[in-house]
Amino acid sequence: MKPIEFGTRLAKRRAKLGESQEALARRAGVVANTWSRWERGDVKPTLDNLPGIAKALGITVSELMED
Fold it and tell me: Residue-wise pLDDT tens for the chain (67 aa)?
């Protein structure tokens, strides 16, 4: 089975929280366009972005990276 792409996982976690891309992007310290590009898989976040993403989602970096 193909592993779930990071962007898909990000979108699913956001939907589970019922949050907008804008709100989570703000909490992660990035612009909404960046969050949107991550979810679409256009770009991948840098390692420096991972703690902010995890914090915005209310999870750990380890949980963020789990498949």
Answer: 345 689 999 999 999 999 999 999 999 999 999 999 999 999 999 999 999 999 999 999 999 888 6
Q: With the CA atoms of 31, 33, 35 and 38 taken in that order, what torsion angle do they form, in degrees rounded to the nearest 10?
A: -140
Q: What predicted TM-score, i.e. pTM, was given to this entire model?
A: 0.88
For 13, other C-beta atoms within 10 Å of its C-beta total: 20
**1 in a structural domain:** no
The range of the structural domain enclosing residue 58 comes to: 6-65
10: domain CATH number?
1.10.260.40
